[in-house]
Design a protein that fits this description.
6-stranded mixed β-sheet, 36% helix, 338 residues, 9 helices
Length: 338
């Protein structure tokens, strides 16, 4: 059961997941230049910081599943905080002060702050789900989601009746890189396809997200893929309203109630989360950038069973063949370096 914990008056919600007797407030007054008040606890404590609610059935939810797997498989005490903007550093500092062994920041925006606080809390490992900055006790694992987006692009490019498709998401490097993969796949299937990028500023503003999606559809897009986190439902709702196809991302969103999701580019987060957490627990972790993709079973592209009969058999075969080539390394999907 999740419990609302007040942490140092920093004004964000901390959710302690599936554990009892958890510490409810950071003690002492560590300075910004800071030392931890005491040596790291022998208890294995793992925290996850997300940019949105873990009930979003997407990016945040799949990371939370990874956290819960660490709890069940490694016996960790786990906690989750939703923190963006200035609250990111508050959360990272508090977890360091509270003696957490491992802190995950789920997104590119957590990379740089993680490296900063890794220097201040040497007994805590900080890992972000994207980014390129590292230190001895800070690093990243990057999901090669571009691979799944490439296959999604193949489907959209081949099946589009209007010759126009759209990508809707937040303008951060990791998301823009997945869009590069989608466009490459779409153009591989149909070189003359028109691929539009629609930028949203706040995925929690579902009205604005839906409006942006409707505008893309009105401009001719009949396939829409998103990187909108909590705004995903607004994207799917607009697609249902206009009778066009949506493609899910990060988690398998094929069962969305809108009935508009034809397939999903999926991250299988549990193995990667558990693997790195085990290394930390055993004292074997070394900071660095770790790329995990289809060859590690971390990425997939899943077609909705409800739509399988509507997808040409030759397209299904082409996607499966491309998947095999990605796994073998014969097909290298483009991605940005950041």
């Amino acid at each position: 059961m999740n419990k609302l914990l007040a942490l140092m008056g920093i004004g964000f919600a901390l959710v302690a997941s599936g554990c009892s007797g958890g510490r409810e407030a950071a003690q002492g007054n560590s300075s910004e230049s800071g030392q931890q008040n005491s040596p790291a606890s022998k208890e294995f404590k793992v925290a996850l910081i997300t940019p949105g609610r873990v009930s979003d059935a997407g990016w945040n939810a799949m990371a939370y599943e990874g956290l819960k797997a660490i709890e069940s498989e490694l016996g960790a005490k786990v906690a989750n905080a939703e923190a963006t903007g200035s609250k990111i550093e508050d959360a990272m500092r508090t977890y360091g002060q509270d003696g957490y062994t491992l802190v995950f920041g789920h997104g590119y925006e957590y990379n740089e702050p993680g490296v900063k606080y890794a220097g201040q809390f040497p007994n805590t490992v900080y890992i972000s789900s994207s980014g390129g900055k590292t230190s001895k006790n800070a690093g990243t694992f990057r999901f090669y989601l571009e691979q799944g987006f490439y296959l999604a692009g193949m489907m959209a490019g081949k099946m589009s009746k209007t010759g126009k498709v759209a990508m809707i998401g937040i303008n951060v490097p990791s998301i823009m890189s997945t869009f590069k993969g989608f466009e490459a796949g779409a153009k591989a299937a149909r070189p003359d396809i028109d691929v539009k990028t629609v930028i949203i500023t706040d995925p929690k503003d579902v009205v604005a997200v839906k409006q942006a999606t409707l505008q893309a559809i009105d401009a001719g897009a009949d396939f829409i893929i998103h990187q909108a986190n909590e705004g995903a439902q607004a994207v799917f709702g607009a697609c249902k309203e206009k009778g066009v196809h949506a493609i899910g991302s990060n988690a398998d969103q094929n069962d969305d109630s809108s009935g508009a999701v034809v397939a999903s580019a999926v991250i299988i987060a549990k193995p990667a989360f558990v693997e790195v957490a085990r290394e930390v627990k055993e004292g074997k972790y070394q900071g660095g950038v770790r790329l995990v993709g289809m060859d590690k079973g971390a990425i997939d592209f899943v077609v909705s069973p409800k739509f399988k009969d509507q997808i040409p058999a030759d397209l299904i075969s082409a996607i499966e063949e491309a998947k095999k080539k990605i796994v073998s390394g014969e097909l290298v999907v483009p991605k940005d370096e950041f």
